[in-house]
Amino acid sequence: MTAIIQVEGLSKRYTIGASRRTEERLKEALTERMKTLFTRRSSGALPEIWALKDIGFSVTRGTAIGIIGRNGAGKSTLLKILSRITDPTEGEVRLYGRVASLLEVGTGFHPDLTGRENIYLNGAILGMSRVEIRSKMDEIIAFAELERFADTVVKHYSSGMYMRLAFAVAAHLEPEILIVDEVLAVGDLAFQKKCIGKMQDVTGEGRTVLFVSHNLSAIESLCERALLLENGRLIMDATPSEVVKRYSSEGQILRTERRWTGTSAPGGEGLTLRAARVSPQAIQVRTPVTLEFDVDVTRRGVFNLSLQFYDEQNVLMFMSFPPDVQSGGGTLDEGSYTARCEIPGDLFNAGRVRVDVLGARDRGVLAFREEAAVSFEVHDSPDLRGGWWGHWPGAVRPRLAWTTIPARRQS
Amino acid sequence: MSASEPLVLKPASGWQALNLRDVWRYRELLLFFVWRDIKVRYKQTVLGVMWVLIRPVLSVLMFSVVFGRLAKLPSEGIPYPLFVLAAMIPWNFFAGAVGAASMSLVGNSQLITKVYFPRLVIPIATVLTNLFDMAVSFLLLGALMAWYGFVPGAAAIITVPAIFLLTALIALAISLWLGALNVTYRDVGNTIPFLLQIWMYATPVVYALTLIPVRWRWLASLNPMTGIVEACRSFLLGTPLDGRSLLVSVVLGSFTLFGGLFYFRRAERTFADTV
Asked: Any CB–CB contact under 8 A between B11 and chain A?
C-alpha cells in the first residue's frame, strides 16, 4: 500500500504572549526593530511552547485514522498543519492527494444568506467547485432534511437546523484526504449516526480520513488505527482499542457520565448508586455545574449523599451534603431517586475536578464510598481576567465583591 | 493532483515565490466572496443598492456648494458638479477599496483560522466588491454628463476601463501592505480613516491640479492618485492630460504592488497564528 500522508519530524513552536492582541503595538515592534538593528539578535526571550514535537507517521490510502489526546496535547495543531492553515516550525508533511478539512462546522456561514446560498458559499470554502455544488444541491438539502427551509435566511434557523445544514455540506465533500475535528460532538443522536454512516461510506470508497474526537467509541467504530498524543508528542500508534485502553487507564479520560449495573454498583445499607452525571458538557470557570446521582433505596431510612471535590493536585477543595440532613430531613421510602447538587459558577478554578461520592445512612453509617465517581474539566474563561493572561493560582476562583473608595480623613 | 507530485508542507523562511497560480485555482471562491459581500451589504436596508448612488449625490451636492459656490474654485471650464464627480468616482472607489480591503483579513479571521485558501483571495475579493459599487455610480455620472451635454471621445471606451483597472491595482497594492500589517498591529486599522481623509485633500478631487503652483506640482504628482484622478477627468471631460503624473501612477503603482505581493506572501504564513 502506498502512503498518502507522510509526516516526518514535525514540530510546531508557539511563542506565548507574542500573539496577544492587547500587546500588539506598532511602537513596541518598532523599538524592538531598532534594538535588533544594532545587536542582530532578539532581546527579551518570550516564553515558548512546543505544541508539537517530532511527530512522525504515515497513512496509507483508504485508511481511517483517529487521533486521541487530552486538551492541549497537540491534536488541533497537527490538524491545522495538515490543513495548511499554519506552517510547521520543523519537519515536513507530504500529501499525495486533494485535502479537505473540516475543523469547524459551518465555516463561513453567513446569517443573512439563505440555506441554499450558504451551501454554495460553504461548499466553495471547503473546496468544492460551483458545478459540483450545483449537482449535489438537492442531495445536500435532502440529507439535511431542510427541504422546506432551503430558501429561508439561516439566521432564522434553529441551532439544530444550522448544524444539519453544515454537516450535510461537509458530508458531500469528495476529497482524497478528509480531515475532521471533533465535529460529531454536536447534533442530535440520529443525525450523528447518519454522519458516521456517511463517513464510513467515505473510507469505503478508498478515501483517507483523519479524525480527531473525544468520542472514543466513535473512533473505535470508525477507525482502523489510532494515534495517541501527549504534550505534543506521539506516544502510541496502534489499533484504536489498544490506544483507547491505554488512554483510559492513564486516567486521562473524563467521566462526566456513569452508569453502574448489577453487583458492580457501589452500595450498602439499603442504598445503591446507579448513575452519575455532570452537566453541561462544556464547563468554564463561570459556568454553573449540575451533578445528578440516581440512587435506589431498598430499605426505608434516613439517607444522604456527600460529595468531596478534589483538584488536580489531589487537594480536597471542599465537601458538600444536603442541608436538610442536619435539620432531620432526608427520610426516604423504598424506590428510585435522583439527587441533584447545583454548584454556582465562579467557584472552581480551571482544571480537572474529581468528585468522590459517599453514601450514608442515619447521618453517620457509611453505606459506600465511590472514589472518582465523576470527573470533569473546568476550562479557563477569558472573562474577568482584567487583561491578565498568566496562570491563575489557587484551588478555587470565586468572584468576590470589590470596591475601592477614596479614604476619608479622620478629624 | 497526480500521485507523483505531492504537496509538501514544510517550514518556510524568508521571501517566497508568489504562487499566483494558487490564487487562480481558487478563482471561484474569490467570486463567491464578491457575491456574498455584495449580497449581504444591502440586506436589511430599505434603499438597497440605491445607497451606492445616494452617497456620491450627497457628496457632489456638498462639494458643489462649499467649493463650487462659496469658495468658487476654478474647474477648468467644466460645470463644477461634473468636474468633481468625474474625480470622485475613482477616488471613492479607491478609498472604499483600501478602507475595506485593509480590514478584510481581520474581518475574515474566522475563515483564516479554520480553512486553507490563498489569503490573497480576501483583499482581491474586497477590491472587486468595491468595483461593483463604482460601476453603479457610473450611472450617476452618465446622467450628469447627459444633463450638461458632455459626450466623451470614442477612445474613452478603452481609456476609462484601463484607468479603473489601474486604480484597482493601486488600491490592492496599498491594501496588501496595510491589511497584512493590520493583522499584527491593529493600530493600522485605526489610522486608515484619517489617512484616507488627508489623502483625499492631497489629491486634486475637489480642486484642479492647475490650482497648485507650478513649482510644487511635481510633489503633488508623486501621489499616485493624482495621475489617476486627472486622467479620469481628461478621458471623460476632455481636460488636458498630464502625462507625467499618469506615468508616475503606473510606475509607483507597479512597485507598490509587487512589493505588496511579496510582503503579503511573507506575512500570510503567520496570519492564522496572530489574527
From this structure: yes
Q: How many angstroms separate the CA atoms of A307 and A293, rounded?
A: 11
Q: What is the pTM of this model?
A: 0.72
Which residue of chain A has the CA closest to B119? A85
Residues A38 and A143 in one domain: yes
Q: How distant is the Cα of B147 from the closest Cα of chain A, in angstroms?
A: 39
B217: distance to nearest CA of chain A, Å?
33
Q: How does pLDDT run across A242-281, given as a tens digit for each residue?
A: 887 787 666 556 778 888 877 778 888 889 999 999 988 7
Instruction: Let me know: does A400 contact A279? Beta carbons within 8 Å.
Output: no
Record the cell numbers describing residue A238, joined without a space: 496502534
Same structural domain for residues A226 and A261? no
Residue A48 and residue A15 in contact, taking contact as beta carbons nearer than 8 Å: yes
Chain A residues near residue B112 by CB distance under 8 angstroms? 85
All cell numbers assigned to B165: 483597472
Interchain contact B72–A (C-beta under 8 A): no
Q: Which domain holds residue A25?
A: 3-246
Q: At what angle do helices B243-267 and B156-184 cross, to 10 degrees?
A: 40
B1: nearest CB among A98, A112, A124: A98
Q: Could you give the CA distance from residue A268 to residue A297 in angstroms, rounded to a whole number?
A: 10
Contact A24, B186 (CB under 8 A): yes
Kindly state whether residues A186 and A77 are assigned to the same domain.
yes
Q: Number of structural domains, chain A?
A: 2
Q: Inter-chain contact A124–B29, Cβ cutoff 8 Å?
A: yes
According to DSSP, the β-strands at A177-181 and A208-212 are: parallel
Q: What is the pLDDT of residues A156-166, one digit of tens each?
A: 998 788 888 88
DSSP type of residue B81: H
Residue A103 contacts residue B114 (beta carbons within 8 Å): yes
Residue ending a domain, among A219, A246, A273, is A246
Say whether both A30 and A140 belong to one domain: yes
Q: Does residue A210 share a domain with residue A146?
A: yes
Are A26 and A108 part of one and the same domain? yes
pLDDT tens-place string over residues B87-97: 999 999 999 99
Decide if A378 contacts A350 (C-beta within 8 A).
yes
Residue A404 lies in a domain: no
Q: Which residues in chain A touch residue B1, judged by CB atoms under 8 angstroms apart?
A: 96-98
The ipTM assigned to this model is 0.82
Could you tell me which residue, B136 or A188, shows the higher pLDDT? B136
Same domain (yes/no): A195, A275: no
Chain B 111-130, residues with CB within 8 Å of chain A CB atoms: 111-117
- CA pair distance A248, A219, nearest whole angstrom: 14
